[in-house]
């Protein structure tokens, strides 16, 4: 492979493999060659290997180092399998929410950090009068509770974070690109019992499958989610964010499909891919909002 004009050497391959940037075990030979050729095209002297692993994933290639990056970024080893409403679970939820809030205060201005900060700003704007910080902390606690499998305490705050309007009764007014697929879902519908285990499963057991979903997730961010919450990112930043959030987006889509199917709002055979494609197409075809 290293002598076939791919722009890399045997020494490059050995170095990349040691750094966890090579293909996952036992790829087809042609796939391995394409993997290393792509790696050669994006590698830069001095660029951290973690950054290279994320960029490689945005080009459609998985590597062992990406698993380490996603475990850390998604905190998969910090979210326990326990009842979030038990006394111990409530305490752990608060601890994790406090850790996330503390980390955000000093975190570099990465795309995922900017996105979370934007959601917290949205919550703060909707809860003025001295209640901003309490509402923001509640949103973080709800997010942790959700990935542990608990019901949302305050779905109004979650709607605020997503830039959704709410009525005086607290019911969400869903943005136009969610109206058909997700309207009518219950505020108190429980998600899968342990969503974080499903996230962990995608990261550790089906990383190639997860990477194949990244282009759709990237479009969903670009045309739907980021405009809705009011975040502007460059193309490369959106690509990086899509890699980091792909697993929770897919798990969230799977949960939403189950919920609306139970409410007889969707037909059979819906998949995260179909729902994301529908949302993307709908938003691309939506008229520009008045300025």
Could you describe the 3D structure shown?
- This protein has helices at 10-18, 29-42, 49-58, 64-73, 87-106, 111-125, 132-147, 155-161, 179-182, 195-205, 207-229, 235-262, 272-284, and strands spanning 165-166, 172-173.
- It is globular, with a radius of gyration of 20 Å.
- The chain folds into three domains: 10-73, no CATH class; 87-171, no CATH class; 195-284, no CATH class.
- It has 13 helices and two strands.
- The protein has 291 residues and is mainly α.
- It has a two-stranded antiparallel sheet with strand order 1-2.
- Mean pLDDT is 81; it is low at 1-5 and 167-192.
Give a topology summary.
Layout: H1 10-18, H2 29-42, H3 49-58, H4 64-73, H5 87-106, H6 111-125, H7 132-147, H8 155-161, E1 165-166, E2 172-173, H9 179-182, H10 195-205, H11 207-229, H12 235-262, H13 272-284
Antiparallel strand pairs: 1-2
Helix pairs in contact: 3-12, 5-7, 6-7, 6-8, 10-12, 11-12, 11-13
**Terminal Cα separation, in Å?**
54 Å
Query: Overall 3D geometry?
Result: globular
Helical amount: 55-70%
Count every helix, treating DSSP H or I runs of 4 or more residues as helices. 13
What sequence of helices (H) and strands (E) makes up the elements? Answer: HHHHHHHHEEHHHHH
Largest beta-sheet details:
2 strands, antiparallel
Chain-averaged pLDDT? 81
Q: Which structural class is indicated by helix and strand composition?
A: mainly alpha
Overall strand count: 2
Unreliable runs:
1-5, 167-192
Biggest sheet, spatial arrangement of strands: 1-2
The number of distinct structural domains comes to: 3
Q: Oligomeric status of the shown chains?
A: single chain
Determine Rg (CA atoms, Å): 20 Å
Taken as a percent bin, the fraction of beta residues is under 5%
